[in-house]
Fold this protein.
Amino acid sequence: MPQVLSFDELEEARKEVATIELDPSVVGNINLLVRDFQACIRDKEESEIKPPALCEGCHFIRDICGTIREPLSERATVALTHLAKAAQWLNGKCEFEDILKMALLVFPHRLTLVRTRNIINDMIEILERERVKMADRNARKQWPLLNELLKDFNRSVYGLAREAAIEDVAFAEELIRLEDQWVNEGRLRQDDTLSTQMGWRRPSYQGVPF
């Protein structure tokens, strides 16, 4: 192949890319996308039971978490962030569609699916489901709800968040963390939490509940 850039030019480009500041919405989309490929209401990374057995009877069995045996590590976030900065440097912008295309290059090397027919086609299908999920999240405005609850417990906002959590495993995980905090603070009874009412309990590990 003919040389396009000299070593010095390539190093200069790398330095410029490293200085790029991504828009918070881009950073948020990357983090949320990776989180979707990690999320498990039953803590699959800590459990000795692995999918598909772990997923049997789970409320989120039809979500993408049910297709993933070994989830992504945070290295996927780092790789996507670097690529997003490069896209911003090269094209002057980086949109969610760009992130999905980058994910198709990054994710197949960093996770294991429960069943694989053709890894690229499988990933295209999963990422298309992610596109739909992101649109639904935006329509429900669920992350602004979570931000409000992070500031202070509000029962009406909590009610709306509970409705969103039933449809979204990553969001459910975040809400459960807040529920645990509110229970400890005496603001919420354990029996009244969504996690208890839906049976979203972590699996037993070596016979001992978490």
User: Anything to note?
Assistant: The first helix runs from residue 7 to 18. The two ends are 56 Å apart (CA to CA). Residues 203-210 have pLDDT under 50 and may be disordered. Residues 141-201 form one domain.
